[in-house]
Amino acid sequence: MSLPIIIDTDPGIDDAAAIALALSHTKFDVKMISTVNGNVGVEKTTANALKLKAFFNSEVPIHRGASQPLISEIQDASHIHGESGMDGYQFPTISTSDLASSHAVEAMNEILSHSNEPITLVTLGPLTNIALLFNTYPECKNHVKEIIMMGGSTGRGNVTPLAEFNIYCDPEAAHIVFNAGLPLTMIGLDLARQSLFTHSYLDTLKDKNNTTQMLYHIFQHYRGEDFKEGIKLYDAFTILYLLDPKSYEIKEADVQIELQGSLTRGATVVDFESSYPNCSVVVSSINEHYKTIFLNTLKN
C-alpha cells in the first residue's frame, strides 16, 4: 500500500531531487505539493514546482503558500540555487492556470480532514505553511501521521555559525512545529554532510533517462558546501529516509529553537539527554545504500 504524503517545499535544486524521488516511486501517493518562500521567492518556488509537475506529466496539485515568514525578514539562497532557484535545464512551458490554488494552508487542511488515513507531511523548506496550518486548524493534527523534516543541525549551521537555512528563515514557525506534539523526524545538516554525492557518482546520471539527465544538469548549477568534491542533497534525504529508515542512525532528543539570541537566532538546540524528547534526530547513515536507492528510484 502506498504512503500518502504532502510535500511542502521551496524548490530549490535539492528540493527538485526529493520531488523527483517521490513522484518516481510507487511507495508514495503524493496528495499535493505546497510552496513557500525560501531558497527563492514564493513566485519562483511555485513556478519551479509547476515546472516539475509539467516535466513529470503529473496530476499532483500545486498550491502556492506563504510569501514571507511569520516575523523574520525574507531570506534568499539564490547564490546557491541560481537566480530562478532551479537553473540549468530548459523545462516545459508552464501557465499559472496549472496552479490549483493560492491557498496552500486551506488545501492542506481540506486534504487532511477528508483523508481516510493519517498523512505524512514531508517538509523541505521553511516551516511557515505548517505553522500556519497548525495555528489556524489545530484539529488537523489528528490527521497527521508524522512530520519528516529537512532542517536544523546538531552542531554547526550553514547560514550562520549555528543556524541551518530552513530554520533560520522562520524560527518562530519552526518553534511552533517542533512543539506541536506530533511525531517529528529531523533530518538536518549532519546527515547530508556525511553523505556526499561525488561528481563521479553524479556523472552516472547523465544517460539513464530524461529524469536523471534533468537532475544532472541542474546539479551542475548547485553551489553548496564542498562543491568541488560533490553535492549535498539535503532535501532528498527526507524521501531516501522514508524508503529505507533502517539504514540510518537515529537518536531521540528534545529540540528547541533559539528565538532571541543575536548571534544564535534560528539555532536548533538539541538535547540528547532530555527525559522528554520531542523528535527523532537522524544523525548519520549506517551504510551507502542511499546511493543505490537514489539511482534505482530515478530509473523508474
TrEMBL record:
Pfam families from the UniProt entry: IU_nuc_hydro
Classification via InterPro entries: Inosine/uridine_hydrolase_dom (IPR001910), IUNH (IPR023186), Ribo_hydro-like (IPR036452)
Keyword Hydrolase among record annotations: yes
GO cellular component: cytosol
Keyword presence, Hydrolase: yes
GO MF annotation, one: purine nucleosidase activity
Annotated Inosine/uridine-preferring nucleoside hydrolase domain residues: 5-284
EC numbers for this chain: 3.2.2.-
Protein keywords: Glycosidase, Hydrolase
Gene3D superfamilies: Ribonucleoside hydrolase-like
Top EC group: hydrolase
GO biological process: purine nucleoside catabolic process
Alphabetical list of NCBIfam families matching this protein: PRK10768.1
Protein name: Ribonucleoside hydrolase RihC
Source species: Staphylococcus hominis
